[in-house]
Write a structure and sequence with these properties.
Helix content is 39%, strand content 21%. It is of the alpha/beta class. It has one domain: Rossmann fold (3-Layer(aba) Sandwich). A hairpin with a 2-residue loop joins strand 8 and strand 9. Helix 4 packs across helix 5. It is globular and about 50 Å long. The termini are far apart.
Length: 325
Amino acid sequence: MKTQDRIIHFLTSLLLLLFTGCNSFLKESLTIDNNKFDMKTMHYRKHYAYELKKNESDNLIICIPGTNYKSVIYSLPFFIKVLGSSIENNIILMPERLTMKFGTDGKDIYRTDNTVLNEYTLEGLLNAYSDTINRYIDKNKYKSIILIGHSEGASLLPGIYLRLGNKDLVKGIVSMSYGGQSLYEQIKELATYDGTTGKPKLNDVQLEMCKRYAELRKIVIAKKDSLEWLDNYTYKWWYSFMDYSPVTDYASIDCPVLFIHGEDDVTVPVSSTRYVEKTFGDKNGLFEYYYDQTGDHSFNSEWGEHKMGEYISNWIKASEPKQSL
């Protein structure tokens, strides 16, 4: 690169940082399930984010996916299905996990990246997501924001909401497959999933691990800073989520929330969402619950992702501000 070109590149990057709060961005097109999006990849200092749109809109949906060790962008097909027709008139934002970035052909390269794994905790995820989201919405003006999360992502939603600089913009939260119990209480419940109680049945290895929940807790505490693996997570991850109960943060939330959970979920038991319902009820009309009678953790059921898309898109439409005539 010539010296003159380097100077131009530097000045361009500086202007982007000053006027957008973003180090750089790249525009391209992306097609998923016959839906074509304009996608903008943004780099906010340490963190990345992806903005997708089919049409111009002043409404925003922020998607937070479940646990993984690759870019959040690979969870986009799932969200496209569950968002249904709402993708037509909403901008979609997917803030990246920690310092991960899109690429590497979808391989779980961050599973062996100790720098990322060391930050892959409840607090680390909350800080990264909320920092990126706040930087984005400070520079992009929207009339309404919907937060939607699945599994681990759903567990983070109330914490992200409470860290937002402008909570008034949030018109609704959609929590899928998590609820409000702590990880420890979930494990205790899963220990009863032995096929004799009318509940779904865990495989033998998972069931044996869950039945040792008290011993498991002691081991996790003893290895709380370890990046060794237990099942699909590091001990450090386990420790950070072990006693966190989202229901504590939901007590401070005063916007509409839709909780969706499958009765046949053997990853996060449906009791976790029923715990929220038992604690708050409908919270003066703010909280709504839908239980998929044949659904598992990812809603592979008779109801399924596509019907869920219709349900969720109608709920989002009802939550957003009415367009003025």
